[in-house]
Every structure is written in structure tokens, then in C-alpha cells.
Amino acid sequence: MQTIIFALLSLVIIAVMYWVIVPRWVKRYRTVHVEGLDSILEGTARRVEIKMKESSSVNAFSLPGGTILVTSALLAQSNDEILAAVAHELGHISRKHHLKGFIVTGMLISSAILALGYLGYLAGAFLILFSFLFQRFLSRRFEFEADSYATTLVGRESYSNLLMKYESSGEGRSILSTHPTVWERLKKI
Fold first, then answer.
1. DSSP 8-class letter at 19
2. From 3.40.50.150, 3.30.2010.10, 3.90.550.10, 2.60.40.1190, which CATH number describes the 2-188 domain?
3. What is the pTM of this model?
């Protein structure tokens, strides 16, 4: 019984982190306007809020609830690059990757805890390893889907240019990476 309670409690903690703490944390950042965002949102029926975080790295990421956090370094790039990065994050929001990731993570963590409690350490350790690797697979799949979505909003050329410009030489080369290589991504779009 304690194992079941612990598994359920872990789900509640993850949910609170995901949908309460992170959205409140991001409110401290300044809302910014991205030129041309309205035109790419036109056919999507989406409303998003863009927030800026001071950082020297060019990056953007989406959060549950439709907020996209962009770095100040990204905002210093060309408007095409900014829109391509935001379109990718819109793909994560549109495809509900946050919710799907939460559900899968919750199921995997609960299963691992239950396996540890009822089947023993070996089964629990195997399930934890499987969960970790499966989440990496799922994350890469989500990246491909968000890439495809971005391509429909800003065009293949604009999005490909963004990927090529910020290609990291080590990105995606490890089984532990959450992102596929740029070359894999370019082949899929």
C-alpha cells in the first residue's frame, strides 16, 4: 500500500511542478513582441505569450499553457530566425507535447516505483533504465514533429537555415541526447 501511495504522490508532485510552479516561475520574465508572429499564428487559432530571458545562448523553449521563453541572444538574430525558432516551439504546444510527456513520464515513474516495491530491485532498475531511454526516444520524436510543424508555418528554407546555423557538432550523437542530429532533422522536413 505504501508503494502505491508513493507512486501516486510522485505523480502529484510532477503535476504541481509542471502546471503550477513552472508557469509561476516564468511570470518573472518580461513579455516581448515578436514582429511577424501574428501572421504565422493566423491560421493556427493559437494564442501564445512570448517572454524573454537574458542569456548569451540562442535558444527558445515552450512551457505548458502556451508560453514561449526566448533568450535575449535569440532576439538579437534576424526576424526569420526568431520566427523559425518560435514556430518550432509552437509545434510543441500545438501537438500537446507537454501533456503527452507528462502522461508518459508519470506512467513510467509510477511503473518503476511499483516494480521496485512489488517485483524487487532488479525489475525496478530495469524499468528505470527503460524509462530513461524511452523518454529520449519520445523526445526525439517530439522534435521531429515540432520541426515539421515549424516548416508548415515558416517554410522549409527558413527553418532549415535556422537548424544549419546553430548546428552543434555533438548534438544528437549520443543515445542519451534528447535531440536528433541536425542532419536527421533536415532529412525529415
1. I
2. 3.30.2010.10
3. 0.86
